[in-house]
Amino acid sequence: MVMFDSLNRHFLPNYGCDWTHAPNFKRLARHAATFDTSYVCSMPCMPARRDLHTGRANFLHRAWGPLEPFDDSMPAMLKKAGVYTHLATDHYHYFEDGGATYHTKYNSWEFFRGQQGDVWMGQVADPKWPDGVGFQSRRGQFLRQDTINRTFMRSEEQHPQSRTFESGMDFIRRNHAEDNWFLQIETFSPHEPFFSHRKYKDLYPHDYRGPLFDWPDYGEVHETPEEVEHVRKEYAAVVSMCDSKLGDVLDMMDELDLWKDTMLVVWTDHGFLLGEHDQWAKVHLPFYEEVARTPFFVWDPRSGVSNERRKSLVQPSIDLPVTLLEFFGVPSTPRMQGRSLTATIATDQPVREAGMFGVFGAQVNVTDGRYVYMRGTADEGVGIHQYTLMPTHMAHPFTVEELRGAELSDPQPWARDLQLLKISRANPDPNGNQARPWKNSTAAQTLLFDLQTDPGQLHPIQDSAVEQRMIGLLVGLMRGNDAPVEQFARLGLAGGSAGGHAGGCPS
After folding, report:
1. In 228-262, which positions are buried (b, 16+ CB within 10 angstroms) versus exposed (e)?
2. Is this model's pTM higher than 0.70 or not?
3. Cα 11 vs. chain centroid, distance in angstroms?
4. What letter does residue 42 receive in the DSSP assignment?
5. Quick one: which of 10, 18, 178, 322 has the fewest CB in 10 Å?
6. What is the pLDDT of residues 309-350, one digit of tens each?
7. Backbone angles phi and psi of 196, in degrees to 5
8. Beta carbons of 320 and 267 less than 8 angstroms apart
9. Distances from the Cα of 72 to the Cα of 118, 260, 439, angstroms
10. CA 328 to centroid of chain Cα atoms
11. Do the strands 33-35 and 308-310 form a parallel or antiparallel pair, or are they unpaired?
12. Helix (H, G, I), strand (E, B) or coil at 192
């Protein structure tokens, strides 16, 4: 499984882009089924990875955090069943407080340092700041560390992405003759900042004479058209680097004739806005298609389907764990909501009528593949809670102030009937983790889009019949997820019950 981070499908030739250099993604399509209706589930980074382990949506119960003691873990289940699992990654969030229980679920793992602001190379003196640091000065220590890290990546071979893929290739070369193994090659790229080396930048010549600018803020676009074009081409350069490393995997599949018995999955956790909707990045605004609809490719040697497209609605972050368990003959658990994609890969057999996605505390979204319904907060006075036994944010535990007044919940069916800490989102955190940018008025709106007539999501529609149908789908999915009753109240939806509902996601 090759996993990228923040890969916008609109930058791939497989999905209609005609100006990026990505020949290996084209080559991949000739070997695999290409999915056209693939959506995120929980957002962003670690919530998506919790989905990947557990096969269920977690964003209605808690925000960013570690795997919980009661969670099912697909890699751990494979390991227990005798399938050797290995993780090669440069995704540094695995090694912060809020992600530190994921990598230990594999038999073995390797981590390559230096992406973004990873606190990697120690240096007391301030680095030489890049020209035009004013673009990025708000990041302070984050930018300082990234600037230091880059000085130790002067060649492509030193880039963490290169080292991650090199490690994956080494694992394959040493173990390809063995049976029953699962390799996860996971890179943080093309996540911001968009740092690449000259050979990839040279693929995108353009007349930009401004200061260093490869790390846009999360927010509205205030830059000039020239600056926006520059950032998009800096991003494209990293995409081309991703394409090159993907080519190494395809080369090894060819060299070792792995196509005959080895599944290959290529996907991303989510996309990224690069000026579309006059916005940068993700999470602080509605999950438009550039973020929510993702590239997804699978080669399954059992069906041998290649160079074909699939229209069925899928959600890789929850469907892949079930699919991979099934591939190795390991039963999934009743708590998993994802669906095996084996028949979908083979014949485009549908696995769901609708899919739900979002981030904790913001809009809750549902799509049937044609319509996207974004349900905003209807009652700001409704308090919501995080349900957890691992009270940890991205980089540090919950504070004492946040934990004051926490209580034990009723037994939760989705958590093996355990009582969990029920922590109010309203409790103050001095570090600002609860005052997130998605609490703005835009993300609180309720919006309905028809992708058939408006694929760019530029014109929300009013259609009461469609809205009522989408509400019905959303309520069913939320109930199947055992969503807390206060989430229904926050969204102004009938259908919540204090006891929740056991079982999987309704089809």
Report:
1. bbbbbbbbbbbbbbbbbbbbbbbeebeeeebbeeb
2. yes
3. 17
4. B
5. 18
6. 999 999 999 999 999 999 999 999 999 999 999 999 999 999
7. -145, 175
8. yes
9. 28, 30, 31
10. 24
11. parallel
12. coil
